[in-house]
Amino acid sequence: MSEVRIRRAVIADIPALLRHRRMMWWDMGERQDSVLHLMGAAADAYFKVSVADGSYQGFLAIEGEGKVIGGGGIVISPWPGILHQRQPSRAMILNLYVEREYRRRGVARNLMKEMIAWCRDDGFAYVGLHASEDGRALYEQLGFKSTNEMRLTLGTSSSNADQPVVR
């Protein structure tokens, strides 16, 4: 494998960001095309706004002359206050994905180190993530600890799954 470098994602990289998100879910066992399509449409709309406004900080692993072999991102969201942090926002790492043929070569670790450093340099006191079983060992090696976060699945009916949420 030639040298791998990490660079920031731009609007033109949205197709790669979408591929990584879809393949991340695929690797975690979500194979239903209609579910992946719905997620992909929402992700496309999200990335078009959030990459442009900086609320999504994408990082891509690039091999050689520009082949994207992996990536990840940080969602910066408004938050009412975090202990030990002045800014009213929080950071969450997500979408970490490395193409199969490049796994177990340190690409994911380098992406994580770059994203952690960005969070630290930007003044965040904490960064969170949701771990897949495959990723958990790496995250623990990098110092991540389990927290008390919980989730309630609300579900959707097939009749309203394609409808926008109006508040």
Textual characterization of the structure:
The structure is a single chain. The chain has 167 residues and is of the alpha+beta class. The protein is built from four helices and five strands. The chain has helices spanning 14-27, 33-53, 107-121, 133-141, and strands at 4-8, 56-63, 67-78, 89-98, 128-129. A five-stranded mixed beta sheet has the order 1-2-3-4-5, sandwiched between helices. Strand 2 (56-63) and strand 3 (67-78) form a beta hairpin. Helix 1 crosses helix 2. The protein is globular and about 40 Å long. 22% of the residues are buried. The mean pLDDT is 91.
What tags apply to this protein structure?
alpha+beta, 167 residues, 35% helix, 4 helices, five-stranded mixed beta sheet
The figure for the number of domains is 1
Class, according to the CATH hierarchy? Alpha Beta
Helix and strand string, N-terminal first? EHHEEEHEH
> Helix count?
4
Number of strands: 5
CATH topology: Aminopeptidase
Structural class, please?
Answer: alpha+beta
The backbone outline, from C-alpha atoms, is: globular
Oligomeric description of these chains: single chain
Looking at this structure, what is the CATH superfamily?
Gcn5-related N-acetyltransferase (GNAT)
As residue ranges, the low-confidence spans are none
List the helices and strands and how they pair.
Blueprint (H helix, E strand, L loop, with lengths): L3 E5 L5 H14 L5 H21 L2 E8 L3 E12 L10 E10 L8 H15 L6 E2 L3 H9 L26
Parallel strand pairs: 4-5
Antiparallel strand pairs: 1-2, 2-3, 3-4
